[in-house]
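Could you help me review a protein record that somebody else here produced? This is what I was given.
***
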Amino acid sequence: MAERSGQSPRTDPTVLVRGGTVIDQGGERRADVLIAEGRIASVEDGIEPPRGAVVLDAEGCVVAPGLVDLHTHLREPGREESETIATGTRAASAGGFTAVVAMPNTDPALDSAEAVRNVFDLARTATAEVAVAGAITVGREGERLAPMAELTALGVRIFTDDGSGVQSAGLMRRAFEYARGLGVTLAQHCEDGTLAAGGAMHEGAWSSRLGLPGMPAAAEEVMVARDIALARTTGGRIHFLHLSTGASIQLVRQAKAEGLWVTAEAAPHHFSLTDACTAGYDPVFRVNPPLRPSADVEAVKVGLADGTIDAIATDHAPHAPELKDLPFDQAPPGMLGLETALALAISELGLPLARVLALLCWQPAVIAGLDPAHGGDQGGPVVPGAAANLCVIDPAATWTVDPTALASRSRNTPYAGRTLTGRVRHTVFRGEPVVVDTEAQR
């Protein structure tokens, strides 16, 4: 399959992750993990470190498969002042991610073989795997389909016009039919442009109080309902990006009960922040879909707990400071997410850590087609012979978010000064320690 991103040739160290508790799809057990030649060599208690091995202390920590983000904006090509593949994957590593799905709203859009190959080439020395989401339509303009078969042949497994919803139901139906024949997944940014036009935040009590143009919840919900109907009609598969309203989540719940091939993700800001955060007109809180009222926040949490929502995806959206310093309704929407997602899930959701890891690791790996069953090496169990993509998490560690200390090129985090619980201590990507004791190694 795939010209998926790889790495330049290098010498893999022997690594021992010692003293941790392994949590994966198979459950929980106390074990050391020995890594050799980029793969897991042994998983058992009491492994003695081979001579010259790099030893990573995991005492009091959980050792898990590396996290997988379904929704990352790396900005390169075209917006390198905000992020690059190098800085974005460094941020991913700091957050425990060993794979990210790069969104196609770059400049130019990722709608051609040339553009996709360029991203793969740039990612060869990255500290995490970069999978590409191809655009559904040429230029993400919603007028004609991109060459999906050509991109699928390069290893693209997900297609989306993220940043814009495909407005034409007829065109979206053709995309479903085309995607079904290729065996790939469509992912939708659910926003009816005629309802959302001009909106800068959620339409409700706070938008009225602040005098800012609002975006109604119906703008999301109408498109969720439409695409569920199209999935039913075509037998295609649809993944809903960053769902944010209770009604949208209920629609997905009903579609799953019907047996349709529907999956969904939620972003950390939609279960940890509300539209009341916009009270000070700070553009750092502008995001799309917008922050919603507390009832919707609770609905997202319930959806994550009961399995309606399959994945936590960061929607990591870096912006250069001069862009985010514009007035609220002129600043571009988006927030950083890669380095805080795990800690926010641990701090805010009240779920068992194994459930949090399912939402951040093996379930998104399956949706992205990066898991072993699809020929990938992400999100699989921690067993001998598997690729050594791992994160080591201290679930009790507390830390305060400092924008200046983040690995991203941008600083637009809404969590500045907030104390969170749970932190990544080490990250191992294809056998190489890329984060050690919370510090990037390259």
The CA atoms of residues 39 and 387 lie 4 Å apart. The first strand starts at residue 15 and ends at 18. The first helix runs from residue 85 to 94. The radius of gyration is 21 Å.
